[in-house]
Amino acid sequence: MVAQIHSDNPKAQTMKIRSIRATPVNIPLRAPYRFSYGSTGSLTKTVIELMTEDGICGLGECADGDRAADVARMAERLIGHDIRDTGPAQRRCVPGMSYTPWDNVTAHRRVFGGIEMAMWDARARTEGQPLHRLLGGAVRDKIAVTEYFSYRLPGVSEPGEASPTDIARYCARMIEDHDARIFEGKVATVTLDEEVRMVAEVRAAIGSRPLQLDANGLWTLTTARQAFHRLMPYEIDWFEEPCESYEEMAALRAHFECSFSTHIVDLPKAARLGCPDAIVTNINELGGIRGVMDFVASCAAMGVGFRFHSGETGVATAAYLHLSAALDHVRGASQTLLRWYGDDVIEGGPFVPNGGVVRVPEGPGLGVTLDPVALQRCHERYLAEGRFPAGASAPAGSSYGSVFRKT
Fold first, then answer.
1. Using CB atoms within 10 A as the burial measure, which of 100, 170, 284, 304 is most buried?
2. Where in the chain is the domain with CATH 3.30.390.10?
3. What's the CATH number for 3-128+370-385?
4. Which of 49-53, 156-160, 209-213 has the weakest average pLDDT?
5. What pLDDT sits at residue 3?
6. pLDDT value at position 397?
7. What Cα–Cα distance (Å) separates residue 403 from each residue in 2, 5, 17, 66, 196?
8. Which pLDDT value is given to residue 145?
9. Residue 327 and residue 138: Cα distance in Å, rounded?
10. Per-residue pLDDT tens for 183-203?
11. Pairing of strands 259-262, 238-240
């Protein structure tokens, strides 16, 4: 479903919202990758186009599938609203409580985060400034990212990797072709014996470069302890979610010298337990760009690290690059699947990491421009494939350009 809400009010002033359009898209991967939940060959996102009364288009994104209908419902409350007033906009759209049995507060927060991203982009474009300047100015212009590896199934454009040797050769090729600096790989996908062989071969292939692993919380504490005894000799720098809970990671910390990270957001508990060392999430989960800024400031005050994870189109990727540029506390290498993307919705295609970094986009706002042909192509792919991951079917009758009008 593609949704658009707009106002016909001729008296609306500059920097006020005229319309909001949402388009679900599928970003294909060059080869499906395996992780502890299964495998996926495509990622479903919702691209947002917010148009101001003076014709400036701001871009945003919802990271968690097809949210076009949710964006349309929320947009009805925001037509005519000033793009600079993100706080009042949030209060219009997101329930003011942590939980209610009659609504989904998390979903509202995520959807608003995509719209709020577009508000910031439109404002920065209106003022002719890169987004990071509105956020306080850049402390860096190159953002460190990890080079991902995993078992991958054969894809349309790449053969994938089916053995520890295949994965080690892939990592060696990333060093040779792209000067990759920090490697991060999926575990908890095959037997522990085979994964130990994989890690050993990857370590031999990458030399002394940092090596990080990610189990996506699949292991029990007992299994994690067994795995750590066998994996730690290969100098693992970071381990993401070996177990699901903070308490289990803290128990591992008592026996192993390794830094931990998680996608589960609970800053007070992280500070209290002293573990995990970093929280890794996206912009939507924190309710938008202002939410990220506030949360990272709290992380800095409480001694907990922060990083972004990847999987978005070039729109949200550009937003997290600008935030990483502006926020000094975002110092570690954030995750990225960019090397595996087979398409994108922005002009020029996916960002390409080189030397272990991605440069912050130049130009006003997010510094990226939608490619309408690519947007149409990615939307049609969503209609044909359904949602990834989870395999939800596309809504019957969905088509690019369908319009919801405010009456």
1. 284
2. 3-128+370-385
3. 3.30.390.10
4. 156-160
5. 62
6. 34
7. 7, 7, 16, 16, 53
8. 97
9. 8
10. 999 999 999 999 999 999 999
11. parallel
Largest CA distance in the chain: 68
Q: Which CATH architecture has domain 133-359?
A: Alpha-Beta Barrel (3.20)
Written in H, E and C, the secondary structure of the chain is CCEEEECCCCCCCCCEEEEEEEEEEEEEEEEEEEECCEEEEEEEEEEEEEEECCCCEEEEEECCCCCHHHHHHHHCCCCCCECCCHHHHHHHHCCCCCCCCCCCHHHHHHHHHHHHHHHHHHHHHHHCCEHHHHCCCCCCCEEEECEEECCECCCCCCCCECCHHHHHHHHHHHHHHHCCCCEEEECCCCCHHHHHHHHHHHHHHHCCCCEEEECCCECCHHHHHHHHHHHHHHCCCEEECCECCHHHHHHHHCCCCCEEEECCCCHHHHHHHCCCCEEEECCHHHCCHHHHHHHHHHHHHHCCEEEECCCCCHHHHHHHHHHHHHCCCCCCCECCCHHHECCCCECCCCCCCECCEEECCCCCECCCCECHHHHHHHHHHHHHHCCCCCCCCCCCCCCCCCCCCCC
The string of pLDDT tens digits covering residues 294-332 is 999 999 999 999 999 888 999 999 999 999 999 999 999
- What confidence tens digit (pLDDT) does each residue in 233-266 have? 999 999 999 999 999 999 999 999 899 999 999 9
Contacts of 254 (CB under 8 A, 6+ apart): none
Determine the pLDDT at residue 162.
97
Average pLDDT, whole number, for the chain? 92
Domain limits, CATH 3.20.20.120, in the chain: 133-359
Amino acid type, 165: T
Residue whose structure tokens are 């590896």: 149
